[in-house]
Amino acid sequence: MELFVCNATQREHLMHYRLKGGDARNRDPQRLYTLEIPAGGQRRVSGDHSHPQDVDDIIEQLERYGARTADEAAAKKDFSGIIYSLDRAVSEESIRLGLKAVDDIAIERAQEHRTQNAIAADELNAKRAQESGMQVSGLEVDFVEQPRPGVKSGDLNKQTIKVEREGAPRSKRARSDA
């Protein structure tokens, strides 16, 4: 039984795993094995670890940390970017879809963090305004990603998040972007 492990992320991945002992194969359950998988690449797990029980042990560990089969990878929110396949290499199409899924999850996570940060800033501003006897109607935050060499910027170059408070008076003053 062959096990292929693919890294559908944009950085190198070091896969660490242990094999259970206590059988005729005399495995040391404390020994840590490492498999280096390049970004967008895949590796076959060593031939001496192709016993069905070894493969099951490795898959159990991989799944615990978000690895999925090619069919499951794009559909799971907890997908880590690691795809595994039994008895055949992971297809180029599955790798491409896995890379896209990882990017989509990262963008969604970044947008959620930005929204939570804007809400927290609004709550802090509202508290300070209340302490000063004033009211605020909300907050508008512009996030602008600065380009970095060698890093794909994706759809996050600029995002505006508006936090509005119910029942708060609306500002009559126009915003100036000068």
Fold and architecture overview:
This protein is 32% helix and 22% strand. The chain contains 3 helices and 8 strands. The protein has helices at 52-64, 70-73, 92-131; strands at 3-7, 13-17, 33-37, 42-44, 68-69, 82-86, 138-144, 158-164. The mean pLDDT is 81. It has 2 domains: 3-96, no CATH class; 110-164, no CATH class. With 178 residues, it is an alpha+beta fold. It has a 4-stranded mixed β-sheet with strand order 4-1-6-5. It has a two-stranded antiparallel sheet with strand order 2-3. A two-stranded antiparallel ribbon has the order 7-8.
Q: Could you provide a short overview of the structure?
A:
The chain has 178 residues and is α+β, with helices and mostly antiparallel strands.
Q: Count the helices. How many?
A: 3
Mean pLDDT: 81
Strand order of the largest sheet: 4-1-6-5
Name the shape in a single word.
elongated
Integer-rounded radius of gyration: 24 Å
List key phrases describing it.
8 strands, alpha+beta, 22% strand, 178 residues, four-stranded mixed beta sheet, elongated, 2 domains, two-stranded antiparallel ribbon
SSE order and pairing:
Layout lengths: L2 E5 L5 E5 L15 E5 L4 E3 L7 H13 L3 E2 H4 L8 E5 L5 H40 L6 E7 L13 E7 L14
Parallel strand pairs: 5-6
Antiparallel strand pairs: 1-4, 1-6, 2-3, 7-8
